[in-house]
Specification:
116 residues, mainly beta, single chain, seven-stranded mixed beta sheet
């Protein structure tokens, strides 16, 4: 099952963006991963269903917040204090096992570019 990520764009360092991920159903554990140019895809954060337990990679703790609106089948990623190192394509994906084992259905992702 593919989930659709959106909300990426160009932002200056120190700025913020909010990404959205729309699912066809609400009862998914969902994670955000990212892939920077020339690097491997890496785990960013995850949110479980239905109790919204969350898990974050160390490099985003205190800057990124994951949340969900179950009524809209949507998961959000609020990204604050962005740095150029956050530049990447961000993917949301359904999890096979919480917090970081996904089903292999990645979708197109959404590009986040942070300028210095």
């Amino acid at each position: 099952v593919q989930l659709q990520a959106s909300g990426g764009g160009l932002v200056q360092a120190g700025g913020s963006l909010r990404l959205s991920c729309v699912a066809s159903q609400r009862n998914y554990d969902v994670a955000w991963f990212r892939q920077a140019p020339g690097k491997e895809r890496e785990f960013v954060c995850a949110i479980a269903w239905p109790r919204s337990i969350v898990n974050y990679a160390d490099f985003v703790k205190g800057r990124f917040t994951v949340s969900r609106d179950n009524a809209k089948n949507t998961v959000f990623l609020q990204m604050n204090s962005l740095t150029p190192e956050d530049t990447a394509v961000y993917y949301c994906v359904r999890l096979r096992r919480f917090p970081d084992v996904p089903y292999p259905y990645w979708g197109q992702g959404t590009l986040v570019t942070v300028s210095s």
